[in-house]
Write a structure and sequence with these properties.
The chain has 196 residues and is of the alpha+beta class. The protein is 31% helix and 24% strand.
Length: 196
């Protein structure tokens, strides 16, 4: 009798429409965040998310690393390096999250299809930790292959990130200061070049 009940159950399972467990899911939209973006309960996760967003050229994940006016009253601020200010002047006054996204979208649009991109960071000093913020200082190498043959594909310099939690406890970059520390162009020049 038990064998008959088990056989009936198996037959019922096989003929009942499935919930799509074994069906392929639709492709992820490029505008959707990828699975590599992790919730950021600390500053180090934000840094990892930023590096991942750059290597994947994900504008959605990139901008999620910066202070969002929808979740915090602290606005995002970028202070350009001297060579960026010299070339692009007033462009950087009042640079906000909107300009940051616009720059990255333009850079991505002018990137090569198979070109690589990455951000290498070397910690200069231990992070300065306070009750509600962390300040990191890094030497950086930013690489992004693009279609403008007359413009470099990498930038080097030193940057300082100030990070803190938003109203939901998720950490973000609130302030970014770029410094010229080598003979190469800085990230500021990249931002100026691809801002429009």
């Amino acid at each position: 009798m038990r064998c008959l009940v088990l056989s009936a159950f198996v037959a019922l399972v096989l003929v009942t429409p499935s919930c799509g467990l074994f069906e392929t899911r639709p492709a992820e939209s490029p505008s959707q965040p990828s699975l590599d973006f992790r919730p950021a309960p600390d500053a180090q996760t934000v840094i990892s998310n930023l590096q991942s967003a750059i290597s994947q050229k994900s504008e959605t994940n990139y901008i999620r690393c910066f202070a969002d006016p929808a979740t915090t009253s602290k606005p995002f601020a970028f202070v350009a390096a001297a060579d960026g200010v010299a070339q692009y002047g007033g462009l950087f006054s009042g640079w906000s999250r909107t300009e940051e996204l616009n720059y990255f979208q333009n850079l991505k649009a002018r990137g090569t299809t198979s070109g690589s991109s990455d951000l290498q960071l070397t910690e200069k000093t231990p992070p300065a930790v306070s009750a509600d913020s962390v300040v990191y200082s890094f030497d950086y190498v930013f690489r992004f292959e693009h279609t403008d043959a007359a413009f470099p594909t990498s930038a080097r310099g030193t940057l300082q990130f100030t990070l803190g939690p938003d109203n939901n406890g998720q950490w973000m970059i609130f302030r970014w200061i770029d410094f010229k520390s080598t003979n190469d162009i800085t990230w500021s020049v990249f931002k100026g070049k691809f801002s429009n």
